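I had to read the description of the data format several times before I understood it. For illustration, here is how one protein appears when written out as sequence plus structure tokens:
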Amino acid sequence: MPQLPGMGRSIDTTATAARRQALLARIGRGVVLIPAAQERDLELDYIQDNDFRQNNTFFYFTELEAQHAWLLMTARGPDSTEVVLFLPPRNPTQERWTGIRLGPDSTAARLTGIATVLPTDSLERRLRVAQFRARGPIYAPLDITTKDERRVLDLVFEGRDVRNLRPIVDSLRLVKDAEELARLRMAVNISVVGHIAAMRAARPGVYEFEIEAAFEGAVRREGADRLGYPSIVGSGVNGTTLHYDTNRRRTTDGDMVVIDAGAEYGQYTADVTRSWPVSGRFTSRQKAIYDLVLGSQQAAFDAVRPGVRMATLDSISRAYMRSHSGTMCGDKSCDTYYIHGLGHWIGMDVHDVGDYTTPLAPGMVFTLEPGIYLPDESLGVRIEDDVLVTATGGEWLSAGAPRTTDEIERVMREARSGRR
């Protein structure tokens, strides 16, 4: 596959062409206009990773990490389509600061697989021609951000039939193709290494941010582009706060740690959570709660197959927890403390796009993440894994991260003994 200068990542031109063709076939007749993301302002924005991440919709159809670009696609029927990529002209002086950028030339056409590549200053004229020839609606991702919406609408004539592209693209993105699955697998595998590193770094007395650093250092060494989302490392009572990400508390002996952290690779992110005792050994109480959550997750996984809906899996998970709670959570069933949904789609977004009423189909990827949160006991347990729907059931993508209490204790015991 061709590799972009300065980007370090290849474009699967066959996959992106197939996605563009699927979109144009769905539209039938009309014009599609998609803006790339713009660089953030190093002087004004708070930038925690780097100053650019591509717009997901633009990336889906190009896999191109180019700033200030545009993609224009025209459908005039099933056998008459056109795709044009618009790129800013290269600026050698600016490239001394930014590195080599792709410009509107034959190199860009070869690397992206898009035959027609033009400078951005010709976009308005080509858009007028496309609108005239297509004689159909204009589709654009109008709800990306207010700034991007304004950029699109500034180019579109008043009175035109402008429709939001996002619902169509979201439905296409729900089922991942082979290239997307390869990137997701890489993101998950990198995240697994990070979770094991976090377990190995744990000792009573370490700070949450030290565990966070162990995870994040490991995933960057493994080739992660960035984090998929801010890492959650909650010890003790902090583990009962779902989106706690301050990560400043010092752990104490007896704490459970909930670490919800995922790596992003090639613009696709994993989402994995593990819960474990900072001491390396579960108490009987911690193990009982943990095994109940684990059983609830396994019951849902066992029901994964094409045609099932996410709501059904959620119900199965909660029914298992209710029927196996006993008196573990006092006079209430433990599912009272299971205060969020079972899972969500993952992909380019950690909570990826897609309609949750859609029956499962091969190629869909989602999380299974039941949990129990008992603030009065400073005890939280969440177990989250990434699952691929196959033709016959499901596949644990994140199975490499220790899941059972025995596996977790073994990894942490070996770390203390100096074994790898």
